[in-house]
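Backbone Fold Data
Goal — fold tokens
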Amino acid sequence: MSDLFDALKPAVKAELPVHRICLVGASGLIGSAVLEESIGRSDMRVVSIARREVPLPQGARTEVLVGRTEDWPALIGAAHADVLVCALGTTMKAAGSQEAFRAVDHDLVLEVARAARAAGIGHMVAVSAVGADRMSRNFYLRTKGEVEEALGKVGFRRLDILRPGLLRGRRKERRGLEGVGQVVAPLADLLVLHGKYRRFRSVRASMVARAIFALVREKPQGRFVHDFDGMRRVMRRAGE
């Protein structure tokens, strides 16, 4: 009789732990996707750090702390986050020079990481780029590789580096040839990018965001690099 009574009782779903994310780069394609994908999730709470107000999708579980970049360390501390997600990045065209590009994609990323560690955050997820290599002759890829190496020395308990290929999604600004690439990329993925070239496949920003949420829940310590297939694996592991 007691077994029957227990079977008739409504099932009580265990509440998922809430992971508090400090997001820098919320206005970009990946950052915007993180905010979009956070809608309806009770297990993720996003606190964005920005230089100016960020348009928020309706229903997003987020708040925005606004300040100059020199104020970001204090804002990062005020976020009381478990994980730092860094989606900062610019382009050579927008930056105007190699020095200005490096100031964002290397120096500011590293400053944010150090501020997060000083605030007690032990886990960082950083968005880099496929082909990142500190020995590359390409300035963009060399800068990405150098900041990856520097992040590994900041002292995070866990560091996840994402290396997506061409990002697909709705950008706020037009990027010329990149827009053309978004159109032809799915065909190239299907016809050309196989085997060792799969890591260069294009990827939707929404998929990168879901991979980020999957990684936020990962526990093992260390430094991990995730390319196209790596992001898919971690998503499957987390049921994303």
Observations:
- The longest helix spans residues 98-118.
